[in-house]
Structure of Fusaric acid resistance protein-like:
Amino acid sequence: MKPILLTSKRHLDDNDVRQCLRIAFGGMLGFILCKLMGWNYGAFFVVQPILLLGIVPVINAHMLRQFVANMLVVSLAVLVVQGLFGDKPVPMTLLVMGMFALLFGQMSGGANFLFGAMSVVNMSMQLHFASYPQADIGDIVASNIVSVFSTLFIALLMQQLFPDVAPRAPRPLVRKSASTRRHEVILATTVATASFIVFQVFNLQSGLSAQVASILVLFPLNWRGAGPAGWNRALGTLVGCNLGLVVQLVLMDHFDVLPFVAAGLWICLMLFARIHMLEVGSGAGFAALTTMAILFGQYLTPRQDLFYSALYRFWSLSLSVLLSLSAIYLLHLLLDRFAATRWAAPKPVSV
């Protein structure tokens, strides 16, 4: 019998431990900062440090440029798309589809994967918030800009406090055929656009986590990677929601005491960061990290606990992942029928 959770490593090395510390303390600092300042859209301030520190093991100039570019592109896109075309569904949908195609193209190319990945997630989150009747687009964009600069400060601080102890081996380079890249861009763009339409048409304002899940499951950009990604995401979300409830039960009536909540969040992030490092990739650990970030950052307030949010989040996310995987599989079969969009495994490039 295969284990429920498959890992690529048995033990963490020194660099992995340092990255775990960066993720846990970075997410906790983002949470404390947004709660102390009383900023809206706390998910931005907790999710972004975890995404950046979880995806990128070492922050360098190229990564910083991609992260800042993501802020500029997404802010402009949300202001134009939602501000000018928010009441015109067809032009808005076409613009969103075009943006998704450009961003997934950057992810498929590989060199600017962080820019594409962060932009897709942030644009989806901001368009979700902007669909609220009471939403202020200016406030949403301003909150994202502030969260980007706070994330950069947190990430650089974490790298200074917990630097790697040994040089990391460079990631292996791969070469994709033109048909493979077309396959990945068309597949991911179509599913992401369908997710956007569903959440807009059915006005699912409480489904932020489900919409983000439908985007994160597309990160492998193909069916072969999306299947395990969907299972991992559901598993990680289940564990994350349950651990969030455990923290709530332990705190009981003290969930409005910030130091207690921050300590509980740090323990959870450290545990899931360890699993993320053992998996080596976007697996159950990474899904649990983003789950905790959204639960604590967006839904936990002194007047609102996590019980309803955690239970609703798991069931809505499970349905979102199931529908996304079904769409990915059907599109994969369709695109593979044509030579121009047939997917083939990328080939390693010898340096």
About this structure: The chain has one domain: 14-163+177-337. Residues 251 and 260 are 7 Å apart (CA to CA).
